[in-house]
């Protein structure tokens, strides 16, 4: 009779959300893997479905994601009645394997699922650095109203009033350098100014911030109510922070939580 395979312990540590990156570290014994998710090709929906598949008892399931540099693959397979293998590797032929270990499926689900939710509830998680946010969400919070009422209120405004409230909810500016002789010099000034500010270095470059006003047609005030309403809906569905990461509340899964409650 062969010995029962050793079951390893997996730890999952999500530790930073910054500028559209969600960084994490996996550890299994002496094996470790430090990597990141990108909001551009957000893998959280696939991670959620992968964990749900493991929860309902599939024999093998995998997904891969692009971290804006490499394609990474997460794979789970039930090899035999007493052996379930987690493999983290590159998603290429002759791929480099970062982690491969016999890990209980419930432990995999629990480590990833609670690892992310625990991080998201901590002070280290800055939601605006990862989660997508729409202008309508921000305006509903500011005005303490719901989406349908918000649309009605904004539709009743004239062109100037609408432009002001949209700008004030999400102010953005064009940065220019009047002393530049051409666009190329202005671009170089912008880069230098950005680098200096990141380093905390003062310079003599003189920049001008010009409000980026909303592009509302001149004849807006003469539009029909239905046409204004559709325009308002289009405006408030714009993103405010530039990131596309899945909202952590949407990552929650009744399938996974029911499975973990069965322990």
UniProtKB/TrEMBL annotation:
Which top-rank group of organisms is this from?
A: Bacteria
What is the protein name for this chain? Uncharacterized protein
């Amino acid at each position: 009779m062969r010995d029962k395979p050793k079951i390893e312990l997996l730890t999952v540590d999500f530790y930073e959300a910054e500028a559209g990156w969600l960084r994490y570290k996996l550890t299994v014994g002496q094996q470790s893997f430090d990597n990141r998710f990108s909001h551009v090709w957000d893998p959280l929906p696939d991670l959620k479905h992968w964990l749900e598949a493991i929860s309902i008892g599939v024999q093998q399931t995998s997904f891969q994601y692009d971290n804006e540099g490499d394609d990474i693959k997460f794979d789970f397979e039930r090899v035999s009645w007493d052996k379930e293998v987690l493999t983290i590797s590159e998603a290429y032929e002759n791929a480099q394997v970062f982690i491969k270990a016999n890990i209980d499926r419930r432990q995999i689900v629990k480590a990833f699922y609670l690892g992310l939710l625990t991080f998201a509830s901590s002070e280290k998680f800055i939601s605006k650095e990862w989660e997508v946010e729409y202008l309508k969400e921000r305006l509903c919070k500011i005005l303490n109203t719901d989406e349908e009422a918000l649309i009605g209120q904004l539709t009743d405004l004239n062109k100037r009033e609408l432009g002001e409230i949209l700008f004030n909810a999400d102010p953005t500016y064009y940065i220019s350098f009047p002393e530049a002789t051409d666009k190329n010099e202005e671009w170089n000034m912008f880069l230098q100014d950005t680098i200096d500010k990141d380093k905390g270095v003062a310079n003599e470059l003189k920049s001008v911030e010009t409000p980026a006003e909303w592009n509302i047609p001149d004849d807006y005030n003469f539009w029909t109510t239905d046409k204004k309403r559709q325009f308002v809906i289009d405006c408030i569905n714009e993103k405010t922070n530039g990131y596309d990461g899945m909202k952590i509340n949407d990552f929650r899964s009744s399938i996974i939580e029911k499975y973990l409650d069965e322990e």
